[in-house]
Amino acid sequence: MSLDEAARQLRSTVHDAQVAFDCLGLGDLERAHIHVITARAAADAAEAALQEALARMSPEEAATEGERAIVATEGS
Fold first, then answer.
1. pLDDT by position in tens, the chain (length 76)
2. pLDDT for position 1
3. What is the dihedral angle through the alpha carbons of 66, 72, 74, 76, rounded to the nearest 10 degrees?
4. Number of C-alpha atoms within 13 angstroms, CB side, residue 36?
5. Fewest C-beta in 10 Å: which of 6, 21, 55, 63?
6. Distance from C-alpha of 36 to C-alpha of 34, rounded to nearest angstrom
7. What DSSP letter does each residue of the chain carry, written as one string?
8. Cα 42 to chain center, whole Å?
9. Is there a contact between 19 and 35 (Cβ–Cβ < 8 Å)?
10. Predicted pLDDT of residue 58
11. Nearest-angstrom CA–CA distance, 48 and 6
């Protein structure tokens, strides 16, 4: 896994959490629950990618790859 994957998963986490929040406001509890579960799964995947990056990257490599990963996801 890479910081690209971590960035994608974090964006997915934010999206699914927002959808869950909106569904809650609409009273659609089943749909809110589904999106909470998918947000949690995406957050777990992001954590796994970050743990791997912590183990293999220097701070300099992390800064370079992290910036690249964020720029790459900006259009998503």
1. 689 999 999 999 999 999 999 999 999 999 999 999 999 999 999 999 999 999 999 999 999 999 999 998 887 6
2. 61
3. -130
4. 10
5. 55
6. 5
7. --HHHHHHHHHHHHHHHHHHHHHHHHT-HHHHHHHHHHHHHHHHHHHHHHHHHHHH--HHHHHHHHHHHHHHHTT-
8. 5
9. yes
10. 92
11. 8
Q: Which two tokens stand for residue 70?
A: 């964020």
Q: Which amino acid is at 11?
A: R
Residue 12 tokens, joined? 């997915």
Both structure tokens of 5: 């994957």
Phi, psi of 28 (to 5 degrees): -90, 80
